[in-house]
Design a protein that fits this description.
CATH architecture of chain A: Roll
CATH topology of chain A: SH3 type barrels
Number of strands of chain B: 12
Radius of gyration of chain A: 12 Å
Shape of chain B: elongated
Structural class of chain B: alpha/beta
Number of helices of chain A: 3
GO molecular function (chain A): transition metal ion binding
Shape of chain A: globular
Order of helices and strands of chain A: HEEHEEEHE
Strand content of chain A: 25-35%
Strand order of the largest sheet of chain B: 2-3-4-1-5-6-8
Number of strands of chain A: 6
Oligomer: heterodimer
Pfam families (chain A): FeoA
Protein name (chain A): Ferrous iron transport protein A
Radius of gyration of chain B: 28 Å
Organism (chain A): Stakelama marina
Largest interface: A-B, 31 and 41 residues
CATH superfamily of chain A: Ferrous iron transport protein A (FeoA)
InterPro entries (chain A): Fe-transptr_FeoA-like, FeoA_core_dom, Transcriptional_repressor_C
CATH class of chain A: Mainly Beta
């Protein structure tokens, strides 16, 4: 099944089931405002980095918390939408 | 004499930099400001093992040398020698979180490239171990080419080794070559990859351990339980401010009464005695009694911050704050503003978006700060009957709660309006690192509280004492001619100024006493209490001094609608020189403090007037 998993098309971070460790496939840097993109890079987001969805805030539209590398980062949903991960 | 060598502490936010700074310098710290910017300069002295003194400066946390806030700008400018008012450091201590090397090493790499002597403090090595991470400092040392010292700042571990390394690095005052500008790589992606490779090389083993932080977060960030926990914490916090402070307030009152008695007994009756006992001691005493409440509030905020919970609160509040056009980040300064708007406004520096930050500054004075408590307490205590309106709910407490809520709603509405008008702009993002949970250190907490207490007492001793004396003099002179039936207060200079103010505020139900108190209360809100006390003391020099006299007079002279209007006034009115001054400093303009004062006074006038007329209309 590993083969199937690795060729499955990437999904958005916001669609990743909670607590499933994954890796960043690609980031739509153009979708993000320049300071946002820079801050994300500074927080260690990059292709190939381990990522995991940890928490979603209440009411379905609040921010999400995810693990990037060894850090826990809170970000808003539109940012999470720009991060593509392996399912 | 050549100055002591300068060592700069640099690192990412949440690397434990300030804990290391506290551990190295203890209470020998000086807080100042960098010229021209609003960034605080924390410096302290420490002795190297060979006895040489070193000046240590704690630079603001930064993610890279590419600044995105005034704080980070200072960090970059200091380490490149471009900061006005600061020497180029003789050495840099880079503080990194051992459990977060991937990220923190990137900034370290940039700093090493600068060319200054560097020592790396591999901090929080114990937490890394707890997370199942074993590291080899020797590998890092070899790859980075600088000394790497494992430390646990909060447990004072590794400090001696760090000082030894510093003694070797900081040689007899000889400056290294001034680093060349622009020679440092700023390609974050490349640096990041190098940092990751380094971190991987230094990691001996890594076992997955279920982290405590994750377990706590499962509840703290839970959509339902997390919000309930936050509400419960806030409730306990405000409850404690009142419940825990009763006893210490009693001690301070007794102490002040004793002091007043002692001074009164030592002086002959007359003007000086009445000025000192009824004016200064009663006035300062009426304010100092609130020290316990202020310290309790600050203690909660410091614990919430140092434990790492505050960022979780910001996460939970982000959705709500987004409605007002702000981000969860604004929650932290706003919560601090319940203690005092001055540190609250300073805490807005962590908000990178300008409009977002400005809006937060403009609404921060609407949070009910602790200086309003003396005013609220005395008016509510005197004018609102202490009866129960439900099981466990007193009317007085309910009114106080209402005033807090009025401030919060006012701030929320103001933010919505401001974001659509004067601070219009794209809604900013919310992106924050969530630090690991940590037990707050008692020493750090004590140090923080001590600094707050000192600032408050200094204010009480200087601003409040001097405004009280000035008001006393203005109220006492000139004396009415013998046989005149005009009261001494009305005849005095202050009385005449008060009459002019009264013309403006009479429509909203304010009487002479309030008009007289408003002007001195601009120096600080709590002065309103001592100012009203001074008016009564001058009016009736034979009466008791202090709080009891004020309460008796309030009951006799004020109507309930007037008292309620006065309370509403204080919800909004920007009666605080310090807040205006800090806003001027933080926004670097007179325009924004002027705007803030204008819109808040307008709101105060409208709210107080509406309250007064409504209260009169329903026959209170």
């Amino acid at each position: 099944m590993n083969v199937a998993a690795s060729i499955a098309p990437p999904i958005r971070l916001s669609q990743l089931p909670r607590h499933r460790a994954s890796k960043v496939a690609a980031v739509d840097w153009e979708m993000l405002a320049a300071p946002e993109a820079r801050r994300l890079r500074e927080l260690g987001l990059d292709e190939g980095v381990g990522i995991e969805l940890l928490h979603q805030a209440a009411f379905g539209r609040g921010p999400i918390a995810c693990r990037i590398g060894r850090m826990t980062i809170a970000l808003r949903r539109h940012v999470a939408g720009a991060i593509h991960v392996f399912p | 004499m050549t100055p002591a060598p300068l060592v700069a502490l640099v690192g990412n936010p949440n690397a434990g930099k300030s804990a290391l700074f506290n551990a190295l310098t203890g209470a020998r710290q000086k807080v100042g400001n960098y010229p021209g910017v609003t960034v605080e300069r924390h410096a302290g002295r420490m002795a190297l093992p060979d006895g040489r003194p070193v000046e240590l400066v704690d630079l603001p946390g930064a993610y890279s040398l590419d600044p995105s806030s005034p704080d980070e700008q200072v960090t970059r400018d200091v380490v490149t020698g471009a900061q006005e008012g600061e020497r180029l450091p003789d050495a840099i201590v880079v503080v990194v979180d051992a459990a977060n090397l991937d990220n923190h090493l990137r900034f370290t790499l940039q700093l090493v490239e600068l060319g200054l002597p560097v020592i790396v403090a591999l901090n929080m090595i114990d937490l890394a171990k707890r997370d199942g991470l074993t590291l080899d400092p020797a590998v890092l040392e070899r790859e980075l080419g600088v000394p790497v010292i494992p430390t646990v700042a909060v447990r004072r571990r590794g400090l001696d080794e760090l000082k030894e390394a510093l003694a070797k690095t900081v040689q007899s005052g000889a400056k290294s070559v001034r680093p060349g500008h622009g020679a440092v790589s700023d390609d974050i992606a490349t640096l990041q990859r190098r940092a990751r490779a380094l971190s991987e090389a230094a990691t001996v083993s890594e076992t997955a351990v279920r982290r405590w932080t994750h377990r706590i977060d499962a509840i703290a960030l839970h959509p339902v339980f997390g919000s309930a926990l936050l509400l419960a914490l806030l409730f306990v916090m405000f409850q404690a401010v009142f419940a825990w402070s009763e006893a210490p307030i009693g001690w301070i009152e007794d102490g002040m009464a004793w002091l007043g008695g002692a001074v009164g007994g030592a002086l002959p009756p007359g003007f000086l005695r009445s000025l000192l006992v009824d004016g200064v001691i009663a006035g300062v005493g009426a304010v100092v009694v609130f020290l316990p409440q202020i310290l309790i509030l600050f203690a909660f905020i410091l614990v919430l911050e140092s434990s790492g919970y505050m960022v979780r609160a910001a996460f939970l509040m982000d959705r709500l704050m987004a409605v007002a056009g702000l981000s969860g980040r604004a929650f932290i300064p706003l919560l601090s503003s319940f203690a005092c708007a001055v540190p609250g406004i300073m805490a807005t520096r962590t908000i990178d978006d300008d409009k977002d930050r400005l809006t937060t500054i403009l609404i921060a004075p609407l949070m009910t700060c602790s200086a309003r408590l003396p005013v609220y307490s005395i008016i509510i205590g005197a004018m609102i009957p202490a009866r129960s309106v439900g099981p466990g709910i007193g009317l007085q407490g309910l009114v106080l709660f209402g005033l807090y809520v009025a401030g919060i709603i006012g701030a929320f509405v103001a933010a919505i309006v401001l974001r659509r008008t004067v601070t219009k702009g794209e809604s900013s993002g919310f992106m924050m690192e969530m630090p690991k949970y940590q037990w707050p250190r008692l020493n750090d907490l004590a140090l923080g509280l001590w600094q707050r207490a000192r600032i408050f007492l200094k204010r009480a001793g200087t601003i409040i004492a001097s405004t009280t004396i000035i008001l006393w003099l203005l109220l006492s002179f000139p004396k009415p001619p013998v046989g005149s039936d005009v009261s001494p207060v009305d005849y005095s200079i202050a009385g005449r100024i008060g009459h002019q103010i009264e013309k403006v505020v009479a429509p909203i139900g304010f009487n002479r006493d309030i008009s007289l108190a408003l002007l001195p209360a601009m120096s600080a809100r709590e002065v309103a209490v001592s100012a009203i006390g001074t008016v009564y003391a001058v009016d009736n020099p034979d009466g008791d001094a202090g709080e009891r006299e004020i309460v008796t007079n309030l009951r006799r002279r004020w109507s309930l609608p007037t008292a309620l209007a006065f309370l509403m006034w204080f919800v909004f009115a920007p009666q605080c020189i310090s807040t205006i001054a800090i806003t001027r400093r933080e926004t670097n303009s007179w325009k924004w403090p002027a705007f803030m004062v204008g819109y808040l006074f307008a709101l105060a006038y409208i709210a107080a007037g509406a309250t007064y007329w409504l209260a009169v209309a329903i026959g209170l």
